[in-house]
Amino acid sequence: xxxxxxxxxxxxxxSLQGRIGAMALDPGRSxxxxxxxxxxxxxxxTPGVIxxxxxxLESEADPEIVKAGIYALxxxxxxxYSEAQGVSSALVRVLNGGGDDEVRRSAAVALADWSKDSxxxxxxxxxxxxxxxxxxxxxxxxxxxxxxxxxxxxxxxxLVTKIQDPGxxxxxxENAWRALGAERILSEPLSQVHRTFATELARRKSxxx
Length: 209
Hints:
Layout: H1 2-11, H2 14-25, H3 31-44, H4 50-59, H5 63-71, H6 81-95, H7 101-114, H8 119-131, H9 135-145, H10 153-164, H11 170-181, H12 188-207
């Protein structure tokens, strides 16, 4: 099925997208078939797959199918805010859904590309970084915040809290540090936080090559 997906993807035929999309959405088909159909759409990688993927994200309950849907999203580059908003809202729904941690991690990573700095995405990523049960999901939320600029005072304060928390997962701290460093203008106190963690990071990497 995976080889078939690659072949169909290379064809990149818009007429196939509707047929394959219908397969992906058909609850009467097996999960394996639906995931294979989403892999075809992933291989095609064109904006034409977005309506199908969005419906998967909005309505599907099976975590493996949802994850395949996230992977099938094409790059958001070149799309307008309004074009991306429906997908970003669907990703926020997945992220906030409280389901499978790996699926929610994938949704947070995808929001880095699809959020277009929407208020809804900002709120979801901040809330997730603040208190999500999974360190992997928190790390993905911090990664998503790298691409949101400018950051408000509350967001900057949260990033500093995460960076300076020795009890926090290391990847969460590092991604929060990268998100802070992505801000175009930092006050001197924030710059000091960034420099201090950079020193700690370098020390850690030198002791764990």
